[in-house]
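Students often ask why we bother encoding 3D structure as a string. The short answer is that it lets us treat folding as translation between two languages. Here is a chain of 484 residues written in the first language.
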Amino acid sequence: MKAIFLPALMLLSSWATALENSLVMRRPGSQTSGVYAVVSPSTGNVTLYSLEGNLTTRYGSANFLADLQKVESYPALEREGVTYSLLRLSHQLSEPMPDVLINSPAFPDKPTAKEAAAGLKSLRARVIEAENTFWETVKPYDGVVRGAMGNQYLLLCVPGKHALLAYDCQDRDKGPVFVSYRNYGIDLMIPQVLNSVPAPQALMSALPADIKAEQKDAIEKAMKELAEGGGTIALQPSDPWIATGTLDRWVLVDPPNKHICTYEYFGKKWKLTSSRNLDVDHLIPSSFSSAPNEQVQFTEYVKSRAKLLAAAGIVADMAYFKALVDQKQVASAKTSEIQADLVNDDLMLDFVKLRKIYAYRLNGANNGLEFLSMRDYTLDVGLALQDVEFRAAGEAVEAWEGAKKFLTKHLYVSAMRAVIYALRMDPSIYKKIDKDSSTKPLKKLPEWQPALDEAIKKAEEQASQRDERIKAAEEARKAKQPKK
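And here it is in the second language, the structure alphabet:
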């Protein structure tokens, strides 16, 4: 399993930019009229508008940059020579306060035996050092802001400053009223889970023994890297996606830091409801609470398409179809490697590069974040891609039969069009078409030779690609074999 596990871990360590949020946000509710919050990232202006019928009306405004400047710059207290700003401390009615969270069991105050052997301080001490480093200077605003609007409140996130800003939008005439703020950097450093189920231990106990061993190796490797880096903890530059669930419940997904956090606002109290480190969830090899079972799905597919697979000379195993996906996927710099959607309180995340979908419920067990299910959809895509190839081959035969009918009627232009289509669908059919004596009239047309040459080239490419898939599948099979 090592060859599969480690590349996945490498992908996790270099997640790409998350999805951006629209900064024109509509309050949930009526489909025929509504209240909108429009945020200008360049000026910091936040304005409420209503759309009723064909009339757009402007209401009150606020400026999140002005609000942010005060809380991030205003010195609130000093501890051991370190000045704490209002933002670092968070609003006094935040729950739990970052200081309380840091001093909770979530951050042990004594190093483990392995940490001590590696020369590391306790996790709590390293988190405090990381916070001191981050907050020692006021970070410049880089123009990046995220937003999500609930029924009564608007949540803005300024990632570069680890700032969550909450605004009361109930009185449209007053506009957004700044009511709370939170330093969410601590929330991204919770090592496992806070009020979220199932716990990592419960997930990992259900995994095969070899996967557990790989997790152990990965953790030890990470510990070694921490030791070599001086034993400090440093968050990756935060780049979150946020959305609103029901009852002014928010979710924040921060891919670079592998965390999901949920928040709620109760009157004057801003609460971190849950936090979950995605590392363990991403170590699940194929599926969790997902149907159909991968092996059952594969077996049924092979049985129903046995003749087609045999005719194509395909060795039917999972490794082959997964290699097909690797070969066929097209990378796009314009598409985020993470796709997300939140409907009511059900969150679906698609980690495109990993080809895994994860489902979470914001108000799950104990009103916390619940990990519902996971599915590696590589095989799903591979089987679908193979069906595309089968269908293309069938359409090529059909087009060739149509071309022959045109030939019997001496409709050579239409016959040539049908031949070109057949060659595009399945280039390897060129052998059958070229040998058929009925195509003699077509060989006089100017389109014939270029179409044939292109088909020969494409057929050779397809054959080469198939050989590469077979080789990749064989290597994957060998990698799964236990070491002697």
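Translate back mentally: DSSP finds 16 helices and 22 strands in the chain. Keep this in mind for the problem set.
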